[in-house]
Amino acid sequence: MNLYEYMGKQIFRKYGIPVPESYLVEKESDIRNFEKPVVVKSQILLGGRGKSGGIKFAKSQQELNDGVKELLGAKIRGLTVTKVLIEEMIHIKKEMYVSIALDRTEKEPILIATTQGGVEIESIPHDQLYTRHIDPILGYSDFIGREAVAFMKLDPDIAKQFMSILKTLYKIWVEEDCELVEINPLVITEEGKLIAADSKVVVDSDSVYRHKEFEVVDPEKTPLELEASQKGYAFIELDGNIGVIANGAGLTMATLDALTLHKGKPRNFLDLGGTDNSDIVANAFDLVLKAKPKAILVNIFGGVTKCDTVANGIVMAKNKLSITQPIVVRLSGVRDDEGRKILKDSNIDSFPTMMEAIERVVKLAGGN
User: Fold this and answer.
1) Is 233 a catalytic residue?
2) What is the arithmetic mean of pLDDT over 44-62?
3) Within this chain, do residues 227 and 357 fall inside the same structural domain, yes or no?
4) pLDDT, tens digit, for every residue of 74-117?
5) Catalytic hit among 97, 130, 140, 233
6) Domain that holds residue 164
7) Which among 5, 176, 179, 182 is annotated as catalytic?
8) Backbone torsions φ then ψ of 296, nearest 5 degrees
């Protein structure tokens, strides 16, 4: 879950990382009286706002008012701006970069720091980056900070502040269940202070239930995807005409691939996960039907998810939702014979292999 900049800075402020004075504006009446030069920053979950016109500078009340009016409701790279952050203007002497991210290959957090900030980290030569994996069991140690400031050749006063920020960033990364905590740029002011001029915080989606304080709507999700997420389903809309329900992300992806191979066009991705609850199966159909497919394919390899449970859920959904689209089911695994009998009694096509089911549903949906 990506957090808006203002949310990331709320976390920084909570943990003691210096951030500029600021306030949030969601409507023009929220604008306060002008006291000093400020930056008007659109709050969208994309980088490169400045290049896209999403940041304005104001040195008067009129410029502040105009900046807010221009940004609120504006479209930036397809996203509508609903909030802007009014932030004091900082006198910048130098911009740096620092982040802690999850290295999925090494299964460890990785610290990245450089004296070259304010630009995309991918554009910085590797020999100018300090990188170090942090053992998740041992955690962060002060020697890592000393190693970083030595690599970056920071002055003693700046080095002390920088080491404190590094230690705090790792604490945030652990305690807030983060996949990424990034400051770009981390500014050295003319007064010799370090301030986080921006924030990028990504919280592990599986930990969201522990962070009710953050309510973020992913702008890239469709309304149906958001509804599915709220109901606990992994669901992605596609542009085909065959609704797909399967159990396990790997099997669901394989189902999409196999459909495409047979010239079928999947309408969605829906992973039931491991469940032995007929209601969960039936409710999945409600979501798929809202995507208006021509046919529905259910692909189940029974283990934790027992085939007769799924069959009962399919029959329940067909009767309760008055489904008129053809349903084709592949059942294999625990209690598959029982499951196929339940489906046969309700005149629902079922097969023991995935390819048989796919060939049938593609034909019914108007493919081969």
Assistant:
1) no
2) 90
3) yes
4) 998 888 899 999 999 999 999 999 999 999 999 999 999 999 99
5) 97
6) 92-210
7) 182
8) -125, 130
